[in-house]
């Protein structure tokens, strides 16, 4: 097969023709062939599948029509015969054609038509005919009531029917066989007179009114029923009689009239009216159907509303009361809302007892409402059982207090997230603050309080207590930060005042020199101590500086640890430093200048932070965020303390400023100004103060070259001193190792002190960076 | 065991169960070193998950509260260098015993009973082989058992109905555990074994008790008190500073808010960057 098709394909003949014939053949085989009769099977086989073009088989023969031509058929005899209809009493004679019954005599085969005609009369008596059909048996007369005068007077008398009328009616009824339509049609009061042949007929005619069909019927039925009853007493009536009797007795003319009127109306509707009626009916149907659905939905809703509170109640081990009415349902709904709200609020109130009381009162109310016998809903009947099953399903059992304790069941007030958790996970979450530094601080505080990182018994109570502790610690940290800010502000304002009280605002260099002197004379005790410790560590190179930074960091930290081993107390330390700074500044003209600048800067930088700073409470979210940033800054500062080549912009600024300050007060002012970070400035001032002391103490002279350089630079581009400062920084480091070293130390000390407490010093910078 | 027919969670309900997990390690006895241990191993240790040891146990076989009614199996994930480092323990006691030389973190995965409908949860435990507290040298010399055991509570928030049923003393699985308890001759107080309560007093066998909890609470309360005191101090200081500030503001006015416009700062930043 495939090969031929291939050939066809190759020769461009297409594969179609090959397949078609085979299909045909197959089809034919399948087809049931009409069985040809009259041909032998062998012949049929010879023909094969092809249908013969001509019908070779004769169709079956049927009986042929009788033909007169061959005389085989003799027609039957018909004769017109007179008869008397049985129903008639007047002896009327009619004729009709009748066919003769087939005779048993043999047919005369030799006789022709004429002959037959000719002999017909003679043959006549030989024919037999059927009996006359008894038509009269169908001519039944209606049995109408008949009555004598006496009977009429006794039984059939009616107020609105006269004897004459009644007679006439009965006559008509019998005449028209109770065909009421005809009767009503023919009923004619005039005829009554004619029927009543008498002299006074004309007078009476006036009295007879025409009657409607119903009136006629009613009257007739009354009479007929009465007649029937008279003939056969009710008790002995057979069923048909009794049914007829009942029917006639119960005929209601009014209903019948109404019915007919309505039928009439219905018949006489216009098409539009019919249409309208149809649509109205449809609408009605729709409404009724929807109502069913609506009711079902409502029932469903009620069931659901019921289920939830019942669950709640039973969980709490309260008695179960079934809300039966819609009033109760609405009560329930409001209660649910209240509960929802309660949960949202996360009220730490003793919720269990509280809500229990609430519920109970609510229950009481609902019960009262129920007893008001408000209209019950349709669902009342079904609800209780449904609800009962639901609650059973939901609450497996109710536990007593002791059992709850034993099985560790609790009903926390806060929102629960479904699922499993371990208690200690929560602890970890609590101690993990937003920033790493904050977390560290909290952990440090915990260590300080001798609370191990892992609670030994993280039970519910312990966890709660722990959470309280951590929140307290956070509060403390916040308080410290705020305090630091406020004290910064105080300091700045003090500087302002000093400035206002007549110190020349632009006596920088001289004043600075004086200030240095003064600073030297009045160092704070704590400072001295620290300086002395760090001085020993000073070395003469940049490397030394960084080393000092490293060394200096831990050094003071240790000192501080002595005083206040928790990182939290660092604020105090920083405060201490600040006060020291204040002292320095009091005697320091340049310091004043710087501060004034700083002040302005401060005002500028911390526009938004100002409010926070001024307020004692910084516990809002922003405060926290700031804190975090501050911490980061603090971190950066730490880094700086260790490594001066810190790549961070701000780090550079800080360091630069510090360095510049160390060198020259003039310069300080400008970079500070540029830096625009009040808090940093504060710090810088502090550090500057230290640097000054140290330079004085150790009699290391300021590098003149650098100074002048810086000064010129400052003069030229007073706004962009940072880079210069940066350069200077290194120069300073090279040239004045001692001061640098001391600065390094100072940095370290301040950083550590700042790390936790005074982190806020960096907030300005932090904010700047954010912008 | 019924299929998790109902997944309906019971709102506002929380059930917890205490348990302990941890490890104990003991150095090899140099005289009697186990032969099968690799040469570099120095300790025999065991990591486990258990119920709270019950106080009435004095003998060798420590009794503990039943945890198998909520815990189906436990998977211990050891260090990768162990053969079959993931050990699944299908039935109590949930523990793995091994030898080793180093400390590492073991991931303990808890598979809960099917009724709970909960996903497995993981905890980490740092295996401890060496003593870190107390007289270390002495302990080393004595080859005392180094224990690192943590108390923990598993919290089922809004459990599904069947599980709630089970945890509160009913259910078929409860019967099953009871049956098991009977096998291990613990039938006497099988009911109480399902409890979430912890013993009221510590004793030799058990250090996890209400007494201990109380101590911890005291400790925390003290710490809270300490912090509160510090807050009070801090507040006092703050008030003083504020007062000072208010006075200064009276004479000096409030700090100027806007003197240097923003572009100045930017210039400063830029300058810093350029030069």
Main sheet properties of chain B:
4 strands, antiparallel
The most extensive interface between chains reads: A-B, 94 and 87 residues
The percentage of residues in β strands of chain B lies in 15-25%
Structural class, from helix and strand content of chain B? alpha+beta
Shape summary of chain A = elongated
Number of strands of chain B: 8
Task: Give a quick account of the main beta sheet of chain A: strands, pairing sense, barrel closure.
Answer: 2 strands, antiparallel
Task: Write down the Rg of chain B.
Answer: 28 Å
Q: End-to-end span of chain A in angstroms?
A: 85 Å
Number of strands of chain A: 4
Helical element count of chain B?
6
Summed over residues and divided by their number, the pLDDT of chain B gives a mean of: 74
**Can you give the helix content of chain B as a percent range?**
25-40%
Structural class computed from helices and strand pairing of chain A: mainly alpha
Instruction: Estimate the strand proportion of chain A.
Output: under 5%
User: In order across it, which strands form the biggest sheet of chain A?
Assistant: 1-2
- Residue share in helix of chain A: 55-70%
Task: Give the topology string of chain B: H per helix, E per strand.
Answer: EEEEEEEHEHHHHH
Organism (chain B): Lithohypha guttulata
Keywords (chain B): Coiled coil, Nucleus, Transcription, Transcription regulation
Subcellular location (chain B): Nucleus
InterPro entries (chain B): YEAST_sf (IPR038704), YEATS (IPR005033), YEATS_dom (IPR055129)
Give a structural overview.
Chain A is mainly alpha-helical. In chain A, 66% of the residues lie in helices and 2% in strands. Chain A contains 35 helices and four strands. Chain A has a two-stranded antiparallel ribbon with strand order 1-2. In chain A, helix 22 crosses helix 34, helix 23 runs parallel beside helix 34 and helix 25 crosses helix 31. Chain A starts with a helix and ends with a helix. With 275 residues, chain B is α+β, with helices and mostly antiparallel strands. Chain B is built from six helices and eight strands, in the order E-E-E-E-E-E-E-H-E-H-H-H-H-H. Chain B has a four-stranded antiparallel sheet with strand order 5-2-1-8, with no helix packed on it. In chain B, strands 4-3-6-7 form a four-stranded antiparallel sheet, with no helix packed on it. Chain B is extended and about 85 Å long. The C terminus of chain B is likely disordered. Chains A and B meet through helix 13, helix 17, strand 3, strand 4 and helix 20 of A and strand 1, strand 8, helix 2, helix 5 and helix 6 of B. Strand 3 of chain A pairs antiparallel with strand 1 of chain B, so a sheet runs across the interface.
């Amino acid at each position: 097969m495939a090969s031929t098709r291939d050939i066809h394909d190759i020769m461009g003949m297409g594969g179609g023709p090959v397949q078609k014939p085979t299909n045909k053949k197959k089809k034919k085989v399948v087809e049931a062939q009409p069985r040809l009769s009259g041909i032998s099977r062998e012949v049929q086989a010879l023909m094969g599948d092809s249908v013969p073009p001509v019908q070779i088989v004769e169709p079956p023969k049927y009986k042929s029509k009788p033909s007169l031509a061959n005389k085989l058929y003799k027609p039957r005899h018909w004769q017109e015969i007179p008869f008397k209809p049985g129903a008639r009493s007047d002896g009327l004679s009619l004729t009709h054609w009748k066919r003769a019954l087939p005779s048993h005599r043999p047919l005369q085969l030799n006789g022709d038509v004429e002959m037959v005609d000719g002999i017909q009369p003679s043959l006549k008596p030989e024919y037999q005919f059927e009996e006359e059909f008894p038509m009269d048996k169908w001519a039944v007369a209606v049995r109408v009531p008949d009555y004598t005068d006496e009977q009429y007077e006794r039984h059939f008398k009616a107020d609105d029917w006269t004897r004459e009328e009644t007679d006439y009616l009965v006559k008509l009824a019998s005449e028209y066989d109770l065909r009421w339509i005809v009767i009503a049609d023919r009923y004619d009061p005039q005829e009554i007179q004619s029927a009543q042949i008498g002299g006074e007929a004309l007078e009476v005619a006036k009295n007879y009114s025409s009657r409607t069909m119903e009136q006629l019927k009613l009257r007739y039925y009354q009479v007929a029923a009465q007649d029937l009853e008279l003939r056969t007493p009710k008790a002995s009536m057979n069923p048909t009689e009794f049914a007829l009797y009942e029917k006639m007795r119960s005929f209601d003319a009014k209903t019948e009239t109404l019915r007919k009127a309505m039928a009439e109306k219905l018949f006489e509707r216009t098409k539009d009216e019919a249409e309208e009626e149809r649509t109205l009916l449809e609408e009605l149907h729709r409404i009724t159907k929807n109502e069913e659905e609506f009711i079902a939905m409502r029932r469903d809703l009620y069931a659901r509303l019921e289920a939830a509170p019942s669950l709640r109640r039973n969980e709490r081990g309260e008695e179960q009361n079934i809300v039966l009415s819609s009033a109760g349902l609405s009560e329930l709904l409001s209660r649910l809302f209240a509960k929802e709200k309660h949960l949202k609020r996360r009220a730490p109130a003793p919720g269990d007892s509280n809500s229990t009381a609430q519920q109970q009162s609510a229950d009481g109310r609902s019960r009262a409402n129920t007893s008001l016998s408000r209209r019950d809903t349709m669902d009342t009947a079904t609800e209780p059982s449904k609800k009962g099953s639901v609650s059973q399903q939901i609450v497996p059992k109710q536990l007593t207090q002791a059992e709850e304790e034993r099985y560790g069941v609790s009903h926390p007030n806060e929102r629960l997230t479904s699922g499993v958790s371990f208690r200690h996970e929560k602890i970890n979450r609590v101690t993990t603050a937003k920033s790493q530094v904050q977390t560290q601080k909290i952990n440090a505080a915990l260590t300080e309080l001798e609370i191990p990182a892992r609670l030994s018994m993280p039970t519910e109570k312990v966890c709660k207590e722990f959470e309280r502790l951590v929140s307290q610690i956070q509060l403390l940290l916040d308080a410290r930060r705020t305090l630091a800010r406020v004290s910064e502000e105080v300091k700045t304002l003090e500087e302002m005042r000093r400035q206002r009280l007549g110190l020349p605002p632009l006596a920088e260099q001289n004043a600075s020199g004086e200030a240095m002197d003064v600073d030297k004379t009045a160092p704070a005790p704590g400072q001295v101590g620290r300086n002395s410790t760090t001085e020993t560590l000073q070395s003469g190179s940049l490397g030394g500086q960084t080393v000092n930074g490293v060394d200096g960091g831990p050094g003071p930290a240790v000192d501080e640890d002595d005083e206040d081993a928790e990182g939290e107390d660092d604020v105090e330390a920083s405060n201490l430093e600040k006060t020291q700074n204040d002292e320095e500044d009091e005697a320091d003209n340049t310091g004043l200048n710087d501060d004034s600048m700083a002040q302005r800067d401060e005002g500028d930088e911390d526009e938004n932070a100002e409010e926070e700073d001024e307020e004692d409470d910084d516990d809002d979210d922003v405060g926290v965020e700031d804190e975090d940033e501050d911490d980061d800054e603090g971190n950066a500062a730490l880094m700086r303390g260790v490594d001066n080549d810190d790549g961070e912009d701000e780090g550079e600024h800080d360091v630069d400023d510090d360095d510049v300050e160390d060198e020259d007060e003039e310069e300080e002012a400008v970079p500070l100004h540029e830096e625009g970070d009040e808090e940093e400035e504060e710090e810088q001032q502090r550090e500057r103060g230290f640097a000054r002391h140290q330079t004085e103490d150790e009699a290391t002279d300021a590098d003149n070259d650098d100074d002048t350089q810086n000064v010129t630079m400052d003069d030229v581009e007073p706004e962009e001193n940072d880079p210069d400062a940066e350069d200077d920084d290194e120069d300073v480091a090279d040239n004045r190792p001692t001061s640098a070293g001391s600065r390094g130390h100072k940095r370290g000390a301040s950083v550590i002190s700042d790390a936790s407490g005074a982190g806020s010093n960096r907030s300005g910078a932090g904010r700047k960076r954010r912008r | 065991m019924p299929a998790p027919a109902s997944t309906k969670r019971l709102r506002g309900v929380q059930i917890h169960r205490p348990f302990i997990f941890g490890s104990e390690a003991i150095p090899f006895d140099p005289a009697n070193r186990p032969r099968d241990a690799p040469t570099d191993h120095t300790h025999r240790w065991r990591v486990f998950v258990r119920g709270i040891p019950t106080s009435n146990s004095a003998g060798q076989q420590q009794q503990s509260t039943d945890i198998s009614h909520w815990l189906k199996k436990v998977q211990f994930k050891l260090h990768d260098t162990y053969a079959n480092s993931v050990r699944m323990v299908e039935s109590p006691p949930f523990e793995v015993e091994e030898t080793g030389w180093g400390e590492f973190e073991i991931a303990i995965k808890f598979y809960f009973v099917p009724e709970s409908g909960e996903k497995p949860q993981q905890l980490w435990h740092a295996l401890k082989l060496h003593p870190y507290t107390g007289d270390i040298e002495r302990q080393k010399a004595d080859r005392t058992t180094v224990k690192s055991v943590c108390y923990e509570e598993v919290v089922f928030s809004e459990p599904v109905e069947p599980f709630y049923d089970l945890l509160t003393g009913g259910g078929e699985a409860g019967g099953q555990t009871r049956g098991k308890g009977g096998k291990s001759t613990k039938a006497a107080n099988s009911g109480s074994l399902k409890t979430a309560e912890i013993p009221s007093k510590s004793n030799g066998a058990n250090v996890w008790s209400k007494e201990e909890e109380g101590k911890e609470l005291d400790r925390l309360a003290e710490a809270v008190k300490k912090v509160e005191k510090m807050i009070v101090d801090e507040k006092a200081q703050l008030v003083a500073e504020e007062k000072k500030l208010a006075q200064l503001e009276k004479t000096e006015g409030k700090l100027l808010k806007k003197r240097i416009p923003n572009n100045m700062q930017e210039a400063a930043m830029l300058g810093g960057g350029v030069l």
